[in-house]
Amino acid sequence: MIDSHCHLEQHDYDSDRNEVIARARQKLKAVITSCAHPRDFDLTMKMVEENKNFIFASIGMHPEFIKDFSQKQIDDYFQLLEENKDRYISVGEVGLDYSWVKEDEWRQKQKELFIQFIEFAKEHKKPLTIHCRDAYEDTVKILEQQDAKQVHLHLFGANQMVKQVAENGWYVSIGPIVLSSKKHFQISRDMPMELLLLETDAPWNAPQVFTEHVKVRNEPTSVEVVAMKIAEIKKIDFEQVAKTTDENTIKFFGLNGV
Ligand SMILES: [Zn+2]
Q: How far is the CA of 5 from the centre of ligand 1 (A)?
């Protein structure tokens, strides 16, 4: 199995990051960690260097941070991404978040930055890892308008748009929220198996959070319960889910040496 989206740079792992990675190595083929803020770039690259062919990076900026950066800082970040373009496999997470950002002016800025990231990804032939929350229609519209082809929708919650997403050939990663959410159950059921990936969004979204309503740190190894749930939903073997999602992830991100 492969965790296609988590955040190993978070402070939650500062005291035992190497043990978390060691546990992931025992169960998983690879982990894609998402750097969603410029301050996390160096630590993310360090993990990639120390764990060649196991940890891969996706580099972007979470749309919730839109108010925190000047245009100059954003330009500098693009410069950094340009200079280091061979060290990461995907651009993300990037996208729109209307839950964090309510003002029209800032939502407009989110859209502009999102388009800039899409253009950058296309120019460098990299896949996009997309975050979207309460902004599904605008996100899909912008991706279509920009003619984005290599798209990975992380924690995508718009079950009514599954047909459109699948027709576009875009991938959706399913996380532990599928244990309790009807929408995510439906998305897992209705998306074709060849467009599904596994994710955890760790350290957030631990499986226990959804079943017992407690605060627990998540880890990449939780993809196992996600794969078990997908097997139940799709009425196929667990091994088949693990094998197909591995193949999908390796193919989509072009993971070398996994
Ligand atoms: Zn994330």
A: 6
Distance of CA 156 from the midpoint of ligand 1 (Å): 11
Say if 200 falls within a structural domain.
Answer: yes
What is the total count of domains within the chain?
1
Q: List, for residues 27-69, the tens digit of each pLDDT value.
A: 999 999 999 999 999 999 999 999 999 999 999 999 999 999 9
Domain that holds residue 184: 2-253
User: CATH number, domain at 97?
Assistant: 3.20.20.140
| Cα-to-centroid distance, 33 and ligand 1 (Å) | 9
CA of 257 to the centre of ligand 1 (A): 24
Percent over 70 (pLDDT), the chain: 100
CA of 37 to the centre of ligand 1 (A): 11
- Contact by Cβ (8 Å): 71, 65: no
- pLDDT(18) > 90: yes
Rounded distance, CA 140 to CA 201, Å? 21
